[in-house]
What we know:
Layout: H1 2-22, H2 28-46
Helix pairs in contact: 1-2
Amino acid sequence: xxxxxxxxxxILIIGWAVGFFAYxxxxxxxxxxxxxxxxxxxxxxxxxxxx
Length: 51
């Protein structure tokens, strides 16, 4: 379950980066970034290794 959250966070960060540079995704891409950051912070708070 933990690695699944990390994989989802990575996919969302990559999606944000692509949308940020493509300028076509609008504001929703920033919501994806916030969700990805929350997932990474949640994982760090749990004390598990990120990589």
